[in-house]
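Example record

One chain of 412 residues, shown exactly as stored in the release files.
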Amino acid sequence: MNTAYLARVAFGYPAIDNHAHPFLTAANRNAIPFEGLVSEANPSQGLLEDAPNTLACFRATGQLSRLYRLSVEPSWEAVKAARASVDYEQLCVRCMEPTKIQCILMDDGLGGVQELAEGYKWHDRYTYSPTKRIVRVETLAEGILAGLLDTMIASGRVDPPKFVRLMVEDITKAIQAAADDPEVVGFKSIACYRTGLDISLNSYTEDIERSFMGIVLRYEMTKKLRLSDKPINDMIVLTTLRIAGQCGKPVQFHTGLGDNDITLKLSSPSHMQPIIKAYPQTKFVLLHSSYPYTREAGYLTANYPNVYLDFGEVFPFLSAEGQRGVVRQVLELAPTNKILWSTDGHWWPESYYLGTVQAREILYEVLSESVKHQEMTEAQAIGIVKRALFDNANKLYNLGLTPHVANSAFEH
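Predicted structure tokens for this chain:
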């Protein structure tokens, strides 16, 4: 069965990248090991050295060799040498033009962004529609808490009840201000990394005060702050869910795939069922395909009207066969009007390129196979592509965009 029109849409339709992070600046283009492009392994433990030996890296090497028009035998070292020889602006353009990303929703709260990366608006030069922000609430809260701790330590007065009250008030005000900001289209929580997705619905002042004292002691000794105390982290998430539900802005959750800072068994979105039920007016976005818990995520998406499933980050971290398996699992149960795509692009423009090209390839392969088996029509498959790449995110985040196409090639 001919699926030529499906291919045209899958490879050429405009896309909304519903979750990504900033590029490194030109000055910092080599500040982070490039192997992080294809692996979440922790570089401080030497694990990135294994990345070039994965099927994911073999595939990325071939694709980037073609992008850079290398005439030599594809190799990871040749790819790194080629990109190093290209002017950074030209490199960014070469990577972004083929993606046909129309709009990026950017989480600019990733660690290292302020020191190493461009501001979110800088990325507008590569998209037809303006970049919008996703506010990472733990990063927002850490900034507020650091200011309070500096004030408290400078005053020489340790008054946990008072400062906990101020902390809660200030965090609530900051989240509300973000909710009121038209540049902000959603929130993001990394509770998965910090304390796990088994978020408690009960927030007790006594537990928060005890956690606060532990934070004070660590901060006095190290002058470093990383919120990883469950009572406080859970309070931040619950506050976000309440305000987000009132303002109609979705909350993204990191689920599944990540580095070894995650407790794997607590990264399954199945732990979120109680908060999903408790906040029916709040829209939850389960990020990163929830891999390896994709089926659990699909189950939640199918059974709760306020849950949406993002099938990102597996491009390019998984092998092609692994990616096909994930997309098939997403489509097993999840309604196709509730699935979203993202690159999880970060640091390198190549992460946006691979995250887009591979997703389009796999989406076409899986859907064309279903069409050929007469499990759906080509028109139905085309509808899935348009919803997954553009329409669903446009509606969920209330972006009000129209797909930007050069001609009527996608009107069928």
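Notes: Residues 349-372 form the longest helix (24 residues).
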